[in-house]
Amino acid sequence: MKDFKYDPDDLIAALATPWAESALAVIRTTGPDCISAAARIFSPSDKLDQAAGNSIVYGYISDGEVKLDEVTAAVYRAPRSYTGQESVEFFVHGSLPGIRKILELLFRSGFREASPGEFTFRAFLNQKMDLTRAEAVQEIISAKSNQAQSLALNRLSGSIENSINTIKSEVTDLLASVEIQLDYPEDEAEMPDVEAGETKPIVGKIDRLLSTYRAGKIYQEGVRVVLAGKTNAGKSSLFNLFLKEDRSIVSDIHGTTRDYLESWISIGGIPVRLFDTAGLREADHPIEAEGIRRSNEIIDNAHVILYVADAQEGITADLEAFMSAYKEDSRCLYVWNKIDKAATAAPDGFIKVSALTAEGFAELEEAIKTVVFRDHYVPGNEPVIDSMRQKKLLEEAREALNRYSQALLDGMPMDMAAVELTDALNALGEITGEVTSADVLERMFSNFCVGK
Ligand SMILES: Nc1nc2c(c(=O)[nH]1)N(C=O)[C@@H](CNc1ccc(C(=O)N[C@@H](CCC(=O)O)C(=O)O)cc1)CN2
Ligand SMILES: Nc1nc2c(ncn2[C@@H]2O[C@H](COP(=O)(O)OP(=O)(O)OP(=O)(O)O)[C@@H](O)[C@H]2O)c(=O)[nH]1
Ligand SMILES: [Mg+2]
Which GO terms describe its biological process (predicted)? Predict the structure, then answer.
């Protein structure tokens, strides 16, 4: 959305599927009179031009007499479409030269290339969805776990919009009662009991929604978990066990892993970026030393550190040194690996596992989840917010409500205090997009995929 003297009546087109060879590709078009514009490059032209809304038409995309591809076209008549405008989707063969030819033809035939998120932007402009749903569209696409995708789908179905609307109507009621009191100050019977405390239940609802933010982020973006520890402790063996794949080289030679490895896995629905690192020891070899430097860097940036100790070795000086260095660090979990051959009993608080037999693995996964969600709300059926934008606006609304309460307590005149309620309503209205500025929209939609 670069141009904010925005013309919602341009005909736009974009490839909605990846630029890659594939079975099928989808080319999306929309705009007023989109169907007749698309029909001009379709044969038989009339068939598309006359097609009923929500129907599929078979034919060819033709550049004059030249057939470019055999396709099907889905026809949507306004307002029954994703964007609310006439739309045509071409399902074409997934050939790169074919796709290119068709797009070039569209761009010569009155369509311009859609910007990122422009279809969804039009859906928003035509009131097909509020901003929380529009944000959810991209969140669904970028979801990295089952859970993240489900939570985003709830948002697309309006879970956030509904919660915000509930909160908004409560603030509106409060404002209305304040206004009655301002209009009829002497009419005791009509006068509702407006007290500072009345914002409490509303603030409570906002707090509840805000408390889901970190959980939402965790599910959407995932967390970094690192396997760290002395050489030969079994980090790479555990890495492979998490991946269920023989990815990292395992051997009994100390210092086997030099370059770190990483992979996305899912632990209980949380997307986890798991790192296998070079074992920590005094290294003579400069390459191994560089590997260890990188291990430490990854440890610094991790959400969870799995320090793997070798149960066969028992408690070593390295382990004690690490534990004292990370004493205050709540990101650490201590893993007592090789319990199938354990010489010594596990120290208190260590998670006992065997990378060889997978014993204790479920407990290890549980422990990771506990660290990730420590002090944080774990989502049930409630809406979970995932957008920094929404979080900031909820905080603004909460601040305004708190200022209102404080103003009343301070004995400020009611009409002045009521301004705070209007501020709260504005912040809430910005969440759903009733009140918005062009640059907010631009920032939001520019993160979208082209064709979405
Ligand atoms: N072919 C195709 N598949 C798709 C999409 C699409 O745009 N095209 N979607 C894109 O994200 C998702 C589905 N979302 C959609 C949302 C609304 C409408 C739509 O036509 N809405 C009309 C009619 C509703 C009805 O018939 O009940 C409307 O809201 O008025 C279509 C798809 C995923 N699959
Ligand atoms: N018995 C037993 N052996 C294990 C277990 N886990 C790892 N091993 C063995 O321990 C040796 C070292 O395992 P790795 O996974 O390569 O250890 P690492 O921590 O990645 O070592 P570096 O890459 O050198 O830092 C290998 O011979 C593994 O087969 C276990 O749970 N039980
Ligand atoms: Mg290794």
Answer: tRNA methylation; tRNA wobble uridine modification
Pure H helices in 143-276: 146-156, 159-183, 200-211, 213-221, 235-243
Residues with CB under 6 A from ligand 2: 231-237, 250-252, 254-257, 278-279, 337-338, 340-341, 354-356
pTM of the predicted model, to two decimals? 0.75
Residue 268's nearest CA partner among 315, 228, 215, 232 is 215
Mean pLDDT per 10-residue run, the chain (452 residues)? 72 97 98 98 98 98 97 98 98 98 98 96 96 95 86 94 97 90 65 65 94 85 94 98 96 95 94 96 90 93 96 94 93 96 88 97 96 69 88 97 93 91 97 90 91 95
Number of domains in the chain: 2
- Give the whole-angstrom CA distance, residue 449 versus residue 18: 10
- Choosing from 69, 98, 130, the residue where a domain stops is 130
Among 89, 109, 130, the domain-final residue is 130
Ligand nearest to the CA of 232: 2
Write the pLDDT tens digit of every residue in 313-361.
Answer: 999 999 999 999 999 899 999 999 999 997 788 999 999 999 999 999 9
Indicate whether residue 29 lines ligand 1 (CB < 6 A).
no
Q: Which atom of ligand 1 is nearest to the CA of 26?
A: 1
Centroid of ligand 1 to alpha carbon of 151 (angstroms)? 19
Q: Rounded to an integer, what distance in angstroms lies between the CA atom of residue 177 and that of residue 193?
A: 8
Question: For the segment 119-137, what is each residue's pLDDT rounded down to a tens digit?
Answer: 999 999 999 999 999 999 9
Point out the annotated binding site for K(+). 232, 251, 253, 256
Nearest protein Cα to ligand 1, atom 2: 89
- The range of the structural domain enclosing residue 64 comes to 12-130
Q: What single string gives the DSSP state of each residue in 129-176?
A: S-HHHHHHHHHHHH--SHHHHHHHHHHHTTHHHHHHHHHHHHHHHHHH
Domain membership flag for residue 3: no
In a domain, 379, yes or no: no
Residue 160 lies in a domain: no
Q: Looking at the domain assignment, is residue 404 inside a domain?
A: no
Residue stretches of the annotated binding site for GTP: 232-237, 251-257, 276-279
User: For residues 18 and 112, what is the distance between their CA atoms, to the nearest angstrom?
Assistant: 19
